[in-house]
Amino acid sequence: MKDKVVIWSPANDGFSITPDSIKRGKSVLELSGYDVHFDSNAFRSYETGVTSKVSRLNVLKQLNGNLEKIVLMSTYGGYSANLILDELRLIQNMKNVILSGKSDLTCILNGIYTKYNIKSIYGIDFSKICNPYLEESDKNNILSALALKDIIFKKQEKFNDGFWYLHPPKNSFSYKWEVFGESIGREITGISVGGNMESLLTLAGTEYMPNFTNKIVVLETIPDISVGQFVMQLKAMVMATNICKARAIIFGCFEPGSCLNEKKIIDFILSEIKTQLPSVISNVDFSHTEPSYPFYIGGKIKLDIMKNEITISWE
User: Fold this and answer.
1) Sheet of 70-74: strands edge to edge?
2) Could you confirm whether domain 153-313 is CATH 3.40.50.720?
3) Are 29 and 4 contacting, i.e. CB atoms less than 8 angstroms apart?
4) How far apart are CA 279 and CA 267, in angstroms?
5) Residues 196-223: pLDDT tens digits?
6) Cα-based distances in Å from 70 to 35, 66, 96, 163, 224
7) Which of 145, 252, 247, 266 is CA-nearest to residue 198?
8) pLDDT at 185
9) Is-cis flag, bond preceding 291, omega within 30?
10) Distance of CA 3 to the CA centre of its chain
11) What is the pLDDT along the chain (315 residues), one digit of tens a residue?
12) What stretches of the chain adopt beta strand conformation (E)?
């Protein structure tokens, strides 16, 4: 029996993904041996641009008590995924179901790990698989992650803003990793949590916000975030959580040309925060830019600082 991928829309409705793109993404998964199913509300147009809470909960209820091996994958992110935070107990009973998503799914993926110790895949949604400009190596990494394999990623020489659905990619030379704060030696390893910082902040004040003690925390944003927005979100994260007790913090890449990719700007921002943060590694390819790599919420990340190389593992 084939493993199944179920596509749902737990935030934005996915209506802007074109039929050709949907066909392309479905083909990639089917050719890789997956049986692909679409929830009836995926790609349906809602007046508000986001799906209803009822439609999202119906998906979770249908999978309640499931015995098949299923990857439950979001169409893409958007906003309002936190609408179902108070119903995450439904996921607790979904046996053999692995959630996969990125961006606004951050709150759900971290929430189920914090509350129920359920691991998930961050960085892969259906829109990513629909990208016609994906390299073969990127497809292989996606499929390896869906199979929960250990994967090694190397820093790529070039990258782009990730807006493939708006315009063909314009590649620029990548920025090397930068390390700030305490020396961490050649390698650092730890349990990985985090994702999109804006979505993660929706967990503030709830029982679903992770305990960051000794964790490796990934913080990434939309590619074209302003310096002001980034500072605002980072300061809020520092004040609302115990992120200062993390083993390390990873900043994802920003779009080509953004001053946030520059060492002097991050230095300035960290000095403005005026809080003793753990070591920070910036310009890492956990991001909205492309190429971007997945990681496992509740899994492990190993960073080889000298090689600019990442290893992710489920266990």
Assistant:
1) 35-38, 4-8, 70-74, 97-101, 120-122, 295-297
2) no
3) no
4) 12
5) 999 999 999 999 999 999 999 999 999 9
6) 9, 9, 6, 28, 34
7) 252
8) 78
9) yes
10) 22
11) 679 999 999 999 888 899 999 999 999 999 999 999 999 888 888 889 999 999 999 999 999 877 789 999 999 999 999 999 999 999 988 878 999 999 999 999 999 999 999 999 999 999 999 999 998 999 999 999 999 999 999 998 999 999 988 889 999 999 999 999 876 778 999 999 999 999 999 999 999 999 999 999 999 999 999 999 999 999 999 999 999 999 999 999 999 999 999 999 999 999 999 778 899 999 999 999 999 999 999 999 999 998 999 999 999
12) 4-8, 35-38, 70-74, 97-101, 120-122, 151-154, 158-159, 172-173, 178-180, 187-196, 216-220, 248-252, 279-284, 295-297, 300-304, 309-313
Distance CA 193, CA 300 (A): 9
Q: Which residues 6+ apart lie within 8 Å of 175 measured at CB?
A: 253, 261, 262, 283
Strands 120-122 and 151-154: unpaired
* CA-closest candidate to residue 197, choices 278, 254, 159, 279: 254
pLDDT in tens, 230-258: 999 999 999 999 999 999 999 999 999 99
**CATH fold of the domain at 4-149:** Rossmann fold (3.40.50)
Residue 126 to residue 28: CA distance in whole angstroms: 10
Mark 146-156 as b/e (b = at least 16 C-beta within 10 Å): bebeebebebb
Single-letter amino acid, residue 12: N
CB atoms within 10 A of CB 191: 19
Sign of the C-alpha dihedral computed for residues 24, 172, 162 and 304 taken in this order: positive
pTM of the model: 0.96
The DSSP 8-state label assigned to residue 47 in this structure reads: T
Q: What single-letter amino acid sits at 98?
A: I
Q: Which residues are CB-neighbours of 166 under 8 A, at least 6 positions away?
A: none
| Domain spans in the chain, listed from the N-terminal domain onward | 4-149, 153-313
